[in-house]
Amino acid sequence: MTDRMVQCALLKEELPGLLYQTYPGELGKRIYENISQPAWQKWMAHQTMLINEHRLSPIKPADRKFIEEEMEKFLFGEGSEKPDGYVPEGNQ
């Protein structure tokens, strides 16, 4: 089986696309059609950092809304900012 290729909106090159729609709805369809596997992995790492640093709970509607807004900015917009004072592990 060959990988489905996409012109990645984040990384600006043709790369293997996602194997399935990873997020529901229209945003999920847009991600599936325009985001590569490596870009999705970058988002997953960034999302984990956001959840940990902001102490978010994906079961809370307000937190889910924030995560979705940051996902759209990260993948398609101006980028998602790291929280103020964020220091990556190992750099403390």
What's the CATH first level of the domain at 25-76? Mainly Alpha
Mean pLDDT across every amino acid position = 89
CATH H-tier superfamily of the domain at 25-76: Fe(II) trafficking protein YggX
| Beta-strand share of residues | 5-15%
Helix content: 40-55%
- Derived from helix and strand composition plus strand pairing, the structural class reads mainly alpha
**CATH 2nd-level architecture of the domain at 25-76:** Orthogonal Bundle
CATH topology of the domain at 25-76: YggX-like
Taking all Cα atoms into account, the compactness measure Rg is: 14 Å
Number of helical elements: 3
Largest sheet: 2 strands, antiparallel
Describe the protein.
- Helices cover 48% and strands 7% of the residues.
- The N and C termini lie far apart (44 Å).
- It has helices at residues 25-34, 37-54, 61-76, and strands at 5-7, 14-16.
- It has a two-stranded antiparallel sheet.
- The protein is globular.
- The model has no long low-confidence stretch (mean pLDDT 89).
SSE topology:
Blueprint: E1 5-7, E2 14-16, H1 25-34, H2 37-54, H3 61-76
Antiparallel strand pairs: 1-2
List keywords for this structure.
YggX-like, single chain, mainly alpha, 92 residues, two-stranded antiparallel sheet, globular
Write a brief caption for the model.
By secondary structure, this protein is mainly alpha-helical. The chain is 48% helix and 7% strand.
